[in-house]
Amino acid sequence: MSEQLFLDEPFRTLWAGRDPFVAVEALEGEVFRELEARRTLRTVVAGRGYFVKIHRGVGWREIAKNLVSLRLPVLGAGNEWKAIERLTKAGVDTMRAAAYGERGANPARQHSFIVTEELAPTVSLEDFCANWPADPPALDFKRALLARVAEMARRMHGAGVNHRDFYICHFLLHLDPAPSVETLKLSLIDLHRAQVRATTPRRWRDKDLASIYFSALSIGLTRHDVLRFLRGYFADDLCAILAREGRLLRALASKAERLQQRYRRKYAPGTSA
């Protein structure tokens, strides 16, 4: 039977002499998702918070449905494990894995899990920036935040990782110490759909950029802010970026508009989510 296992403290001690794949199923706490094939919860071990994601195999029917829809199925916790490792090496702040396991060669019935340390105290950028249109932040702080997100995106794609859910809600702003230009720290989370390759295909890079652009449309960014982000992401002179990436930028704006229209249709009054 194919098996991978990593245990750090406190789980190395907690599960000593036990089957980790059985022990992880016994963890209790606040459940965020409970499906036949997947369970997500927050638990506390030795006074510290952890997030647990358990995958029990999606079945061949679900795999086929995803492939027919031209979507890559998420088979287990391996995506998140590999993405965390690659991002950490690339200098992108993200979660820290305390435990990981994968068992079974059959992708439809694979049992896997990942346990990550809770990042606290933090707030998502979506929540932190929600009032910006009415109450704009200090200019130097906004610029520092844009620069940090752009740098993280550049490093992520440069490391061969694309997120597939690259929205500002998946950036956590650390609150201790209080965020400032000097103390600013962001962590990228929710990597279960991430893809890891030697290099990031341009198609998937562009999908990530369109997603983050869409997710930031409501926080009051100006055209200058967007251009500042692009300059940070491409690490080049703005004129050169516009000349080289003009076609891309038009495509990003178009994709973001389509995403926004889809969002409006999905969450329009009277529509069941």
What does this structure look like?
This protein is 40% helix and 20% strand. It starts with a strand and ends in a 7-residue tail after the last helix. The protein is α+β, with helices and mostly antiparallel strands and 273 residues long. The strands form 3 sheets. A 6-stranded antiparallel sheet has the order 1-5-6-4-3-2, with helices on one face. Strands 7-9-10 form a 3-stranded antiparallel sheet. Helix 6 runs parallel beside helix 8 and helix 7 crosses helix 9 (238-266).
Brief digest:
The chain has 273 residues and is α+β, with helices and mostly antiparallel strands. The protein is built from 9 helices and 11 strands.
The CATH topology of the largest domain comes to Transferase(Phosphotransferase), domain 1
Low-confidence segments, given as residue ranges, are none
Number of domains: 2
The counted number of beta strands is 11
CATH architecture of the largest domain: Orthogonal Bundle
CATH class of the largest domain: Mainly Alpha
Shape: globular
Helix residue percentage:
25-40%
User: CATH-wise, what's the superfamily of the largest domain?
Assistant: Transferase(Phosphotransferase) domain 1
Main sheet specs:
6 strands, antiparallel
